[in-house]
Amino acid sequence: MPHDFYTKRRIEFADTDMAGIMHFARFFVFMETAEHEFLRSLGASVESKLDNLRLGWPRLAVSCEYLSPAKFEEVLDIHLMVARKGNKSMTYKFEFHRGEALIARGQVSAACCVFYPDGKLKAIPIPDFIASQIQEAPQGEERGA
Amino acid sequence: MPHDFYTKRRIEFADTDMAGIMHFARFFVFMETAEHEFLRSLGASVESKLDNLRLGWPRLAVSCEYLSPAKFEEVLDIHLMVARKGNKSMTYKFEFHRGEALIARGQVSAACCVFYPDGKLKAIPIPDFIASQIQEAPQGEERGA
Amino acid sequence: MPHDFYTKRRIEFADTDMAGIMHFARFFVFMETAEHEFLRSLGASVESKLDNLRLGWPRLAVSCEYLSPAKFEEVLDIHLMVARKGNKSMTYKFEFHRGEALIARGQVSAACCVFYPDGKLKAIPIPDFIASQIQEAPQGEERGA
Amino acid sequence: MPHDFYTKRRIEFADTDMAGIMHFARFFVFMETAEHEFLRSLGASVESKLDNLRLGWPRLAVSCEYLSPAKFEEVLDIHLMVARKGNKSMTYKFEFHRGEALIARGQVSAACCVFYPDGKLKAIPIPDFIASQIQEAPQGEERGA
After folding, report:
1. Using a CB-CB distance cutoff of 8 angstroms, which residues of chain B are in contact with residue A69?
2. B chain contacts of residue A21, beta-carbon cutoff 8 Å
3. Which of A53, C75, C109, D41 has the most CB atoms around its CB within 10 Å?
């Protein structure tokens, strides 16, 4: 039962800013996409439906620490870990490496919600077909820990 | 009856790329926002409803010519002109100036559509409360023409 | 001597995602732009030079908590507070309100750096023409505290 | 000697807008990244150097026609064709398909430039190590033509 996921991503020109490095906000897009790849790998696209309502994962809280700049065309190794599997929410940790160098460390907490056709959303317990496939990562899972 | 609209916008850090200039794709966001400001100035937000269906303006075709680079913190003068008012679509032209210098020239054609709750969309004649307020710009309206 | 700054910003179409709300990563762009407006209000653009080297503020750590969704065309009130003025870094707190409703709370720590022409950067003490103009906000400054 | 290039790309959550489809400006990022993959496949990264100056390809003109909406998680097939190899510029055409369906058609003209350390840029003849590897696509290359 997976508790983590690895993916890779190359930094694009549009990810950079005039400081010549990847713009700090883009790391959150990289995290979100890694999370979606992880859910997809479980057969649980973020576009899943529950009783014909669209499932979604609005963010509760996010953070990122930047340890070293990342540059255009570099390929980042992204490591997603399930830090906490709650009843109605998930917390993921992320590490970004370029080779051996740790570039950034992030965290995302997201609530499991259904979207009603009028745009309203309501937090719900994580459906079993997702929850049953995920477990929390053991402590100290980070590389080198 | 207006046929054009003026707005200003300062280039943000996140608009730039590692070449030190505004990323070319951001010009389209500037055009779209100017278009929305124009519609809002007519009391016709892009979030308008028609028979309780959401109105929207998906793009049919867009283009942009870049004449001079634009840099961080510069303020661009944006001039929107109504190039064509069709039955179910609008075509806008845009000019971006920094002081006297012409930076870029763009064009956007958008279809007037209603969105159904299932996500489908259908082109409709531009509702009268919008169409009645807009006219096409006379030819040769561009600055200096 | 200012320890905070207020600005406003309307949510654009390109700020939204298919959940119909402002994309969570865009809050960081709103924070960054508010920070730059604050620095500019002190006469200290982020584009300042020191001994002919470009000054910049790469991010050390950022975070955001999301309390309520924000939607297209809404105008957010953004309140920047100087949480910490270090020797070589600054920490800002941010609050986003829509009317009375608190939408999100964020934090950004940034290092004061010079950029060398080869792209390298080095942390430096915050130049006096900036540091002398800023003070830390008193504790409990958040609205309603 | 290649005159075209194929790549694929999955639409991310952050590529979408509140209309539930891929935001129109993101197509230009997809085109730019495909162009960079093409150059990289020739051993000619956009980060190439010439006489120790950075090479770059600022855009002269771009356009896109949208034929059908593209949605979250869909995988687009992107076909780049060399429409024109000039002395100092390149023009690429792009087609985006989802399966058999043509989603969008785009075009990008870019000037070959060197960037001086002061940020100035100058158009130059396309260096031979790039120009010698590329040829124009025959007319009528588009799929189905």
Report:
1. none
2. 18
3. C109
D28: chain B residues, CB-CB within 8 Å: 24-25, 28
Minimal Cα–Cα distance from D108 to chain B, Å? 10
* pLDDT at residue D81 greater than cutoff 80: yes
Contact B64 D69 (CB under 8 A): no
Give tens-digit pLDDT for A52-71. 788 889 999 999 999 999 99
Check CB contact of B1 with chain A, cutoff 8 Å.
no
Q: Is the pLDDT of residue C95 over 60?
A: yes
For each of the domains in chain B, give its residue range(s) and CATH number, in order of start: 4-131 (3.10.129.10)
How does B76-112 read in b/e, with b if 16+ C-beta sit within 10 Å? bbbbbbbbebeeebbbbbbbbbbeeeebbbbbbbbbb
Return d(Cα C68, Cα C71) in angstroms, integer.
Answer: 10
The answer to whether C18 contacts D23, with C-beta atoms less than 8 Å apart, is no
State the DSSP string of B66-134: E-S---TTPEEEEEEEEEEE-SSEEEEEEEEEETTEEEEEEEEEEE-EEE-TTS-EEE-PPPHHHHTT-
C109 and D CB contact within 8 Å = no
The verdict on a CB contact (< 8 Å) between B17 and A21 is no
State the pTM of this model: 0.94
For residue C62, give how far its alpha carbon lies from the nearest alpha carbon of chain A (Å): 5
Cβ–Cβ below 8 Å for D18 and C21: yes
Tell me the mean pLDDT in the region D124-143.
85
- Measuring CA to CA, which residue among D111, D82, D106 is closest to residue D2? D82
Say yes or no for a CB contact (<8 Å) between A14 and D36: no
Q: Side-chain half-sphere of C42: how many Cα atoms within 13 Å? A: 24
Q: Is the ipTM of this complex over 0.85?
A: yes
Per-residue pLDDT of A77-86, as tens digits, reads 999 999 999 9
